[in-house]
Amino acid sequence: MAGIQKVRLNNLNINLKNALIIGIIIAKNSPRTIGPKKKNGESRGITSFTLRDSEVDTINVDVWGSEYFVITFYERFLVGDIVEISSPKICVKGGDNEMYRPHVSSPFYLSLNEGISDMTTHNGDTYTTYLPLLHVPTKSSSGYCGIAEVVKLSEQTDNVYVDLLVVVKSVSPTKTIRTKTGSDMTIRSVEIIDNTSPASLFLDMFDIDTIQRADEWQAENVLFIADARVTWRSRAVKVQVCSKTVITHQPYTADAEALKLYIRNQNNTGGGAAAAWAAWSGERPCTASVAQIRDRLATGAPFCASLHATVTRLSLEDVFSGDNKEDILISFADHTGELSARLPLTTLPEVFGYSVKQLKMISSDDRAALNWNFLLEQCSAKLASSPPRLIVLTLRRASPADPIPLY
User: Fold this and answer.
1) pTM greater than 0.85
2) Tens of pLDDT, residues 328-344
3) CA torsion 388→257→137→248, rounded to 10°?
4) Category of 331 on φ-ψ map: left (φ > 0), alpha (ψ -120 to 50) or beta
């Protein structure tokens, strides 16, 4: 194209008409329809994404056009793609619209219009120089929030956003839910942990692009999540991906490497979970009945508790079933009712004397014998609430000296 001028993001100005910008896509937002349909029945749509061309420089990009054009554009380009943008309109940022967009360094944003601007995949000699930029967080890692702070936040009516440096504990399968308006919505949750609390947190994702990206996330992978929105559902704190959020998978930072090493060491050493929960929550795991534990669960606040009850459901065969790689289901009952909890696989050596690997090597009869050491027996367990989950920290057969709550 005649008169085209290659420009870096840090050299943009509103007078450039035929700029050529190369960068890597680091975030996307789902397309949406704007305004009523035209006389020909066609709707106008918009989608947006975030681009960077250096470790420092980032910018938001709006794409306008027919609904079909915008949807096709969204599906065509993915996070991690290196692209060339030609002849964009360079606009000055401003207004309330910026409250709902990712935080970027540029004072401008780019506007691409169907039939005027163009974007294609970049295949030039500089292609490989852009790839490492996908692992650079969009915000300083020094300002992130710990899970310990997030789970103790009180419910607020205004939007609350936090930056998080976390490790993936597990990735749930994608599922479809029915909204209050009767429409179907796709959702996927990722359980995340860090070094500030033994509690875990759930990150909910609703846009298809992020849901698909999560296929690549594995346990012990690090995520830097810029501007996750905090939500309160059934009094439990969660975070979710929104239009402001940028997720950096496996960030190249010293803090990320230190966090990964910390979590790996915790997983390898095991033990001390009850003490860690007690230290974090500021309370000893006092003895409680099933009913008392269920009442505390309803508050949504993290806590510790000791329980003397009969184990009514436990199966070591769950270790080998389905997608379960983190914990197995266990149920307790006493004179006040019944409740279910999760027994993490990391506690199996302390409870049964066998690791998961060793359990796989013994016969099913031997596993059944181990199982019956607890099933339908009076047991003493220390539990921790990480809303909405109830986790078993320790489990042993009860003794006559263990207290039993009367109510």
Assistant:
1) no
2) 999 999 999 999 999 98
3) -50
4) beta
